[in-house]
Design brief:
Blueprint (H helix, E strand, L loop, with lengths): L5 E6 L5 H7 L2 H5 L18 E5 H16 L8 E8 L3 E9 L5 E3 L2 E3 L2 H12 L6 E8 L9 H7 L10 E14 L12 E15 L6 E2 L1 E5 L12 H17 L4 E6 L4 E8 L6 E7 L2 E8 L2 E5 L6 H14 L2
Parallel strand pairs: 2-4, 2-11, 7-8
Antiparallel strand pairs: 1-16, 3-4, 3-7, 5-6, 8-9, 9-10, 12-13, 13-14, 14-15, 15-16
């Protein structure tokens, strides 16, 4: 018998990049498999190129264009890049946006690092080989090269990436772009231009005195983090308690699901019994709690807006049941 806290619902079977780097899980940065053990060591040559999947390229150009049309269009923005580090190539498979709670201005962008942590954990659920490769950020003017300030920040942590080298993209918007915007042109091997928007690609290796241009290529493929972008404000709103849950509870899993008004995020915490779990559904600032037990679904109201506290209140309630 469920306690009066549970209501039967339905019966069914069913400061800059270093700040960001500091909070990302160690296995995401260094390329281990986290809870599944380390990846076998490999030798890495200096990067010869960065390859973007087609959807990753779409994300960067589309979101940069949308950003420029917004109220903060003159501020810098950016993305964390995740993917695979091959022997002499970086393959970008996912983009994590700076977010609406990022600290931005016309000369800086500091990511919402807590949201980046949760985003990286969600993306890596499907492939533990994914790791942080580098970052993209925009410049409000026409400076296509990373600035001295960029170098000062990046050189402090880039050596901890696989191969001791990272990739860096600089986005610019210029009055006279390359072409008519019908497709991406590459006037130089390290540049991608679509209309008046340009992304210029560079690498920086530990100990190097400066960035070097990095040839860019495109291949067919998805942006594995694209489903997270419509719910990024939800991730930002709940990132801290979700990270705490992940650290303290084994086998927490995240998924993008349908909420009442659109996409939502669900965190699932397995319970001791077979086919038993707690689901925390997050939609905007709202948090809803559900228990699945023997094919039945119950909704709970612990009257707690922080997901971690709500989960522990409900776990205590379940532990007190006979």
């Amino acid at each position: 018998m469920a306690s009066n806290m549970w209501q039967a619902l339905v019966s069914t079977a069913g400061r800059f990049w270093q700040d960001l780097y500091r909070v990302l899980p160690r296995e995401v940065r260094a390329g281990t498999n986290g809870r599944h053990g380390p990846v076998a060591p490999a030798k890495y040559a200096p990067l010869k190129r960065v390859t973007l999947t087609a959807e990753v390229g779409d994300t960067l150009f589309e979101e940069y264009a949308a950003h420029r049309l917004g109220a903060r269009g003159d501020d810098e923005t950016g993305w964390v890049l995740m993917g695979l580090r091959e022997a002499d190539e970086a393959v970008v498979l996912a983009t994590l946006p700076a977010g609406t709670q990022a600290s931005t201005g016309v000369a800086h962008v500091q990511f919402n690092s807590s949201a980046q942590t949760i985003g990286s954990l969600i993306v890596r659920q499907s492939n533990r080989q994914l790791r942080m490769l580098g970052v993209v950020h925009t410049h409000p003017g026409t400076l296509r090269h990373p600035s001295d300030g960029d170098y000062h920040g990046d050189r402090q942590w880039v050596g901890q990436l696989r191969g001791g080298e990272g990739i860096f993209g600089i986005g610019t918007a210029e009055a006279h772009g390359a072409g008519d915007g019908l497709y991406v042109r590459q006037p130089k091997p390290h540049m991608q231009c679509l209309g008046n928007l340009t992304f210029s690609w560079y690498s920086l290796k530990q100990g190097d005195p400066d960035y070097r241009p990095l040839a860019c290529a495109t291949t067919l493929g998805r942006d594995l983090a694209r489903p997270l972008h419509p719910i990024w404000t939800t991730i930002e709103a709940h990132a801290e308690p979700l990270e705490r849950l992940y650290r303290q509870q084994a086998r927490v899993a995240f998924a993008v699901t349908e909420g009442r008004a659109g996409p939502a995020l669900t965190a699932t915490i397995p319970l001791a019994g077979p086919d038993e779990a707690m689901h925390v559904l997050l939609e905007g600032n709202e948090v809803r709690y559900y228990l699945v037990r023997k094919g039945d679904v119950f909704e709970a109201d612990p009257k707690e807006a922080r997901a971690d506290r709500g989960v522990y209140l409900l776990l205590a309630e379940l532990a007190a049941q006979p």
